[in-house]
Design brief:
By secondary structure, this protein is an alpha/beta fold. The chain is 35% helix and 25% strand. The chain is built from 6 helices and 9 strands; from the N terminus they run βαβαβαβαβαββαββ.
C-alpha cells in the first residue's frame, strides 16, 4: 500500500482541508498533500495551507479563455507536484473531462446533504440546509462521492446521517453536518489509501 499523493481544490474556508491535514498528522490517513489550489484569492484554505507548510496557489478562471484551458493549467500543476489523487474540499467549479479523465475514479467531493437529494448546480453553502429545512426533512447528512462531469452526481463512497432538530436554523444544521464531514472525508480517503474500494457502474464496494 502506498500513501495517496493528494492535490486539493478549494474555494472557501478550508475546514475540511484542515481536517484532512489533522488526520494525516495523527497517522489516521495515509496521504501527503502535495499542493492546494484555490479558485479564489481570498479563500481561507490558502491560510490553512500556509499554517501547515503546504504549497498553495490561487488560480482565477478569468485568466483563461475556456473552462478546458483552466483545467489544463490545473492538470499541469498537479502533474508537476506528482499528485495521484484529487479532492474537492469546498470547490465550487464543475470539472471538465480534461481533469476527470486523467484522474478517473480518483477524485472525491464532499457534499453537505444526503445525495441525490439537495444537490446539483447552485446547491452549496446555506442553500442546501435551507432547502432541507424548508422541505421538512427529519434527517440530513453528508455524502462523499466520486466526481464525474455533472454536479454532485458520481458514485457514492460514504454517507452519514444527522438528525434535524426542532428549532434548527440553516446555521445549526450546517454545524451538525460539518462535524460529521470532518470525520467522514478523511475516513473515505483512507479506504482508497488501503486499496479497499472497488467500483462497478454506480456502485462502490468496500472490502473488509
Ligand atoms: C462543506 O460544507 C462541503 O460539504 C461543501 O463545501 C463546504 C466547504 O467547507 N462541498 P470548508 O471550506 O471545507 O470549510
Amino acid at each position: 500500500m502506498k500513501r495517496l499523493q493528494l492535490g486539493v481544490l478549494a474555494s472557501g474556508r478550508g475546514s475540511n482541508f484542515e481536517a484532512i491535514l489533522r488526520h494525516i498528522e495523527a497517522g489516521k490517513l495515509w496521504a501527503d498533500v502535495r499542493v492546494l489550489v484555490s479558485s479564489r484569492k481570498t479563500a481561507g484554505a490558502l491560510e490553512v495551507a500556509g499554517a501547515y507548510g503546504i504549497p498553495a496557489l490561487a488560480v482565477s478562471r478569468k485568466d483563461f479563455p475556456t473552462d478546458e484551458a483552466f483545467d489544463e493549467n490545473l492538470l499541469e500543476i498537479f502533474q508537476k507536484h506528482h499528485v495521484d489523487f484529487l479532492i474537492l474540499a469546498g470547490y465550487l467549479r464543475l470539472l471538465t473531462p480534461v481533469l476527470i479523465h486523467p484522474f478517473k475514479n480518483k477524485i472525491l467531493n464532499i457534499h453537505p446533504a444526503l445525495l441525490p437529494s439537495f444537490g446539483g448546480k447552485g446547491m452549496y453553502g446555506p442553500r442546501v440546509h435551507e432547502a432541507v429545512l424548508e422541505y421538512g426533512c427529519r434527517v440530513s447528512g453528508v455524502t462523499v462521492h466520486l466526481v464525474d462531469e455533472s454536479y454532485d452526481s458520481g458514485p457514492i463512497v460514504a454517507q452519514r446521517c444527522v438528525p434535524v432538530e426542532n428549532g434548527d436554523t440553516p446555521d445549526t444544521l450546517a454545524a451538525r453536518v460539518l462535524e460529521q464531514e470532518h470525520k467522514i472525508f478523511p475516513e473515505a480517503l483512507q479506504l482508497f489509501a488501503e486499496e479497499r474500494i472497488a467500483i462497478k457502474g454506480r456502485r462502490v464496494y468496500i472490502q473488509a
